[in-house]
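Suppose you are handed only two things: the residues of a chain and a line of SMILES describing deoxyuridine-5'-triphosphate. What would the bound structure be? This form records exactly that question and the answer produced for it, so the two can be stored side by side and reused later without any lookup.

QUESTION INPUTS
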Amino acid sequence: MILSIYVQMLKLPGNEDVNLPRKMSEQASGYDLFAAVSGELTLAPGQRALVPTGIAIAMPDGLEAQIRPRSGLALKAGITCLNTPGTIDADYRGEIKVLLINLGQEPFTIARNERIAQMVFQTVPAVTVEHVETLDETERGAGGFGHTGK
Ligand SMILES: O=c1ccn([C@H]2C[C@H](O)[C@@H](COP(=O)(O)OP(=O)(O)OP(=O)(O)O)O2)c(=O)[nH]1
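ANSWER OUTPUT
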């Protein structure tokens, strides 16, 4: 283990039955997030929804959590996160929600306690910003967007 961090997770009222985010293997990067929808939610093709997870978290300053799609859902049903990766700020204490979109051809139904996305913790460096008049020169310069070829 290179880095060990303490994160608090809270089940919000009315969501005692919803699983806390959980790693599906010891060395998985992501904690799977469970849907806290009441009953079921069906996303028609092209439809998006902000799906509740029933949890809130607190993590140390200098961390963020990223909400990422699950590749299985994306492959099988075209279900992904519209704003991937979603950003959970260290000072956010509200309910974590997942902005899902159905990019598939068929309606997709999400049941309560179904795994809908995953949450990966990342470090965020402390950055000091300086406003300058010129930048140093590099070989790349302003080249980008495929300027090196296909
Ligand atoms: O997928 C997401 C993305 C964000 N959030 C929550 C946590 C995050 O800390 C907060 C704000 O997110 P973001 O900075 O992406 O949103 P914004 O559109 O810039 O809103 P704000 O003005 O509230 O910061 O919303 C989620 O629950 N899920």
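WHAT STANDS OUT: The radius of gyration is 19 Å. The helical segments are 71-77.
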